[in-house]
Every structure is written in structure tokens, then in C-alpha cells.
Amino acid sequence: xxxxxxxxxxxxxxxxxAARARVWLTAWPVTAVFILSNVPTPLLVVWRHRLGFxxxxxxxxxxxxxxxxxxxxxxxxxxxxxxxxxxxLIPALLLAAVACVIYATAAxxxxxxxxxxxxxxxVGAMVSAGMAAVSETAGPTQKRFAALVGSVAMxxxxxxxxxxSGLVSELLPWPTVTVFLIELAFLVSALAVVLRLPxxxxxxxxxxxxxxxxxxxxxxRPHLLLGLAVFxxxxxxxxxxxxxxxxxxxxxxxxxxxxxxxxxAFVMFWTGAAVQFAMRRGRVRTVLxxxxxxxxxxxxxxVVAVLAxxxxxxxxxxxxxxxxxxxxxxxxxxLLGSGVAAGRLAEANAALNVGGYLPAGVLPVIVGYLSDGxxxxxxxxxxxxxxxxxxxxxxxxVANSRHRALTATHS
Length: 411
Known about the structure:
mainly alpha, 16 helices, globular
């Protein structure tokens, strides 16, 4: 097993700049699809008013894409490793385009659920095949850089989507239509990038079944488990802020302004992107432990926000949650990139995201329905206590681990 602490340096000068530009370009389809994943967030209150559904149903609609995501992750990683990245990414972009059309014409909760499931399928393909394509474009000597680019591409996408949606829906006509036309243009440009990817596959062992729960080789299980210990709480924290943020803002500020809701999500995730650049030269252990601390602090601030009706605490919670999620994602991807062979990398990325997105989809839905029954203050407090505990346990587990991959530094 190897780490990135001793690697051959990348080419210098103009060739290095051009090579890194290609990596960023390869990451654009990831960003484009992740923009779609959160574009509906500020619009949920519009659909809720128009269609008349409860807070619990709102969180179900938000989290429905987890169904599609898990379905895609059960297939996309293995398929991508066997037949190449392009044959997986092209259908993913087409499904995302269909989801845009359904969103723009949605007249029922069923339509919204269908669009969210299709979005999940596209996201599932991107976090496995798309991230693997980024890693392959970077090459074996730039694994940490590839992890940084892929992680930032995801975070920028999920942060840009809500702000774009909030601005477009408030300032332009047809609030639930126009933004999806813009997103369609993004997807077309992403398709152009995917079509230029090389035709290649890494071909894992033929005996592995095509459809199965994503996993990693036995030797790489510590990489996955250590990453998940921090990534799962980090992802769940930001998912909660996204799902319940508009409702919390309405309760604390008395506003349903979609720009405010979108800007909150934007700041949260762009904070996640910024801290990844700030921590990119740090050891993986430091990145993950810091992520766990930020997630715990963010969830504690969320509890303070609802108990004290503090808008300042709510925005602090968003910033801390974004930082925790961003760093935990970077650390998890770095661990996998440092140890997993190319022939299993897409599946390993899928496994990391299954472990992260599953609680991120389930727990906010539980809180949403609890808030209908026992109130938002009590349900959010219970959620916060659970998440602080999980984040602290994850950070302590990483801090006490002696796995050598945690000492890897910037490549």
C-alpha cells in the first residue's frame, strides 16, 4: 500500500498549468450535475405553497434523490471501472436533463419525487465515474490534487445551485421554470466535455457482480472507514441545513425570501470549498480531525439558533457545517485516492458516498416529520445532540488511529 507522501513531482511550467487546467475541465460535469442536485432547495417553499404539502413531505421530496443515488451507486461504480467513464457519464447527463424538464413542468408531489430520483441517478454516476475521470486525468503523481479538484467541484456545485435558483426565481419570470432552462445549458456544455474523454476502462476482476453494494478491497477498508467516520456526520449536517434551512429562516427571520435561503446555502458550501484550499497541504489526519470539530461545532450552533431564536447562530452553523463537510469530503477522497487501485477507484468513491448520503437522506426526513409532531425546536435539538456525538466520535477515532495513510500530505 502506498501513500502520497513520496511521489514524483508533476511537470513544471506551462505543461503543468495546462495539465491542471485539463483536470479542472474534466471536473465541470461533476459541478454541473451537483448544481442540479440543490437547485430545487429554495423552490421547495414555492412548490409547498402551490401544492399544499407538510414539512415532513417537504423533507421527503428533498431527500428522494437518495433513492436514485443509491440505485446508481450500486451499478455505476462497477460499470464505470469495467466499461469506462464515458458510457456511464453520458446517460447520467441525459437523465439530469430529463429531470430538468420534469421540474419545470411539475404539477404534483409525484412529479417532484420523480425528478429528485432522476437527479439522484445522475449524482450517483458523477460521484463514482465522474470523480474517477478527474483522478485519471490528473495522473498517478497528482492524487491529492485530483482529490482536491473533485471535492471542490462537488462543493461548488451544491453551493451554487441554491443561490442561482434563489436569484433567478426572485428576479426573473417563471420562478420554477427559468432556472432549469439555465441548468439545461450547463448540462449541454458538460456533455461536450464528457464526449472528449478518452475511451478506456480499467477492467476489474470478471467475477465481481455488476450490481452490488459498493465496497473496497479488504486492504483498503481502513481508508473507507476512517473517511466515513467524519464524512457521514459532515454530509448529514449540511443536508439538514439545506432541507430545514428555509423553514428555520422563516421561523427566525419571518422571511421566505428565496435569495436569503439560497445565499445561506451558497455561503455554507463555498466556505467548504475555501477551507479545502486552505487545508490542501495538511496531513489527512489533520484535515479529518478539524472537519469533525467543525461539524460538531456547527450542529451545536444549530441547536443554539433554534433555542435562542438567533439568526447569528444559524449563519454560524451554516459556515461551520460547510467547513466540516468540505474538509471531511477532501479527507475521505484523499484516503481512497492514496490507497485504492485504479480498477476499483470509481467503486470506492461510490462506497464513500453511500455511507455519507444514506444518513444525510434519512435523518433530515425523520427530523422533518418529528417537527410536525413535537415542534421544530425539540426535533432540531435532538438531531443536534446526535450529530455532535457522531462528529466527536469520528474525530476521536481518526485522531487515535495509527494508519499510515493519515500522514499523507500534499502531493
